[in-house]
Amino acid sequence: MSRRLQMLQVARLARRSLGESADLVTDFLHSRALPAGGFGNRDGVADLYYTPFAIDALVAIDPQPRPPTAEAPAGTAAATSTLAPEHVAATRAWLGTFGGGESLDFVHRCCLARAWSAWPRDACPRAVRETLGAGIDAHEAADGGYATRTGATRGTVYGCFLAVNARADLGEPIAAADPRAERIAGCVARLRSRDGGFANEPDRPLG
Prior knowledge:
Elements: H1 3-11, H2 14-18, H3 21-31, H4 50-61, H5 85-96, H6 106-116, H7 126-137, H8 157-169, H9 179-190
Helix pairs in contact: 3-4, 4-6, 6-7, 6-8
């Protein structure tokens, strides 16, 4: 099970915690859906950073998922199971305008991978997945971790977190036996702070 699905399993408990407010949250999320695709930021502009958060929030909290379809079979945590049909098509087309994320920074490449993971795997062309994956791999630091900039000497906890999740979102998780997993674990271990937490810089007193 991917980390996204694990997260959604926990997030689905939010409806119980929110009580009557859950419907207000659902209505707000739907109100941020833009006719041209994606979800708006505070200025009402389609935003690749906010879009996967909105999609996953709706998948988790919407009490009235749409009937199963070929694109969203029963039991899938797909955008097509909760978004209005016209917004499904518009958002899928909007995501396609980013191609393989060549013009995006590391964080937004990872956001694009997360957004595509809300669709069945074959919705995102293989060439796009491969280009996205290569772009993420380009952020591997000299110590085996991942950083938000290329050519970094050492990775960060944040960079490793994003890279590992993005790889899983692309359907290519980094398995425990993969040499990259050991390098990432080593990077994160070196970032353990003196209080037992973790920081993005080594030898910090607090995590």
